[in-house]
Amino acid sequence: MPDQFATPVDELTEVHVAGRVLECLVCAGRTFARREIKLNTTGMSFIGLDWANRSGQGVICRTCGFVHTFLGGALEWRRPDAVAREP
Fold this sequence. Notes:
This is Putative nucleic-acid-binding Zn-ribbon protein. 6% of the residues lie in helices and 32% in strands. A hairpin with a 2-residue loop joins strand 1 (14-17) and strand 2 (20-21). It has a single domain (14-77), classed as Single Sheet (N-terminal domain of TfIIb). The relative contact order is 0.28. By secondary structure, it is mainly β. The strands form two sheets. It has a three-stranded antiparallel beta sheet with strand order 2-1-6, with no helix packed on it. A three-stranded antiparallel beta sheet has the order 3-4-5, with no helix packed on it.
C-alpha cells in the first residue's frame, strides 16, 4: 500500500524550528513529511483566484497524520540518521 503522506520531495525527516526538534503536538512523533498548503481566503475563493493565496509549509506527522502549518522559512529539515543524539 502506498504511503498516504508521500510527496515528490518526501523522505523521513526531522524538523528543527528555532534550533529545537519539532515533536508532534498530538503523539510526540519526530518524523514528518512535507507539503505546500494553500491558505485560502473567502474573498479570493469567491472570485476564483485561489491560486493567488499565500502558501504555508505543511509538516505532516508520519505517525498520526496531524498537520502542523508554518509560515516563513524558519524550518530546517534533517534526515534522522544525520542528527547527533544527546546522551
